[in-house]
Amino acid sequence: MSAAWTAVTALVALAVLVQVAVRSARGQGWDNSAMNTVVGGRDTRLAVLSVLGYVSIGAIVIVVIGCVAVALARGSVRLAVGAVVVIGGSNLTTQVLKHAVLDRPDFGLGTLNSLPSGHTTVVASSVGAALLVAPRLARPVIALAGGFATTLTGASTVVAGWHRPSDVVAALAVSLLWTAAVALVVHAAAEPVAGTFTAAIVGCGGALLVLVAIGVRPVLGWDGFVQGSLVLGAVTAATAMFVLACAAVAPAE
Fold first, then answer.
1. Are 116 and 167 in contact (CB under 8 A)?
2. Per-residue pLDDT tens digits for 10-43
3. What does 129-141 look like in DSSP terms, one character per residue?
4. Strand partners, 251
5. How many domains does the chain have?
6. What is the rounded distance in angstroms from the CA atom of residue 77 to the CA atom of residue 5?
7. pTM over 0.90
């Protein structure tokens, strides 16, 4: 898929999420129920909160510096600027949408809007920027690590009760929109890199296994296994698609 179509797809996905999960009574109910399908004990919650604690302004700065350094080392000022735009634009968009643009109608489930997820945007936009500036041979590694980190962060916000699943997917859509838009402006031909697909799947799936290993479980036990699996599986699948889409629009150079 071209960068233009990827950007359009991300924008449409974001609009649909807002309409269904925020402005629809039934959608709010589904989303709220999905958030409450998985839980962790005290030690699990502490582990999850520890993961989320690493997502900070300082982390953003480090990633920006790293992306700029890689791009400049490769002799590409435009990619260095592009990485900054992806990260800055994604996170600014998320904060503006969440706090200034979107409102949550009162359908009995609270009116505080939490879409998109800020924590997920920080990590996802960093992955998008890294895939844009990285050499082709390094992209499978970034897809692996990025898929793991984004899935772990997004799913952790759901387990912690900070965000609904739609908030996480919306953050992925925002980050993909900016990544694709920058790739389009850069005007560089994209070329698939062997191993990226497998790496992304392994990374995202690995994060899911870690969450299960540290004690994330369905709220209803075995009776809620299907529902819990569907929620965590949906977040994992959405993240894998995000990573692969970002890798697909990355410059071939």
1. yes
2. 999 999 999 999 999 999 999 999 999 998 888 9
3. HHHHHS-GGGHHH
4. 190
5. 1
6. 25
7. yes
What lies within 8 Å, CB to CB, of 29 at 6+ separation is 107, 109
| Burial label, 26 (beta-carbon count in 10 A; 0-12, 13-18, 19+) | exposed
Tell me the residue range of the domain where 215 lies: 3-29+40-249
Token pair 């005290």 in the structure block, residue? 42
109: phi then psi, degrees, rounded to nearest 5: -120, 20
Q: CA angle at residue 182 from 250 to 124, to 5 degrees?
A: 70
Tokens 């435009």 belong to residue: 78
DSSP bridge pairs for 190: 251
Look at residue 166 and tell me if it is in a domain. yes
Amino acid letter, 181: A
Is residue 35 assigned to a domain? no
Alpha-carbon distance of 29 to 31, in angstroms, equals 5
Nearest Cα residue to 236 out of 216, 221, 222, 251: 216
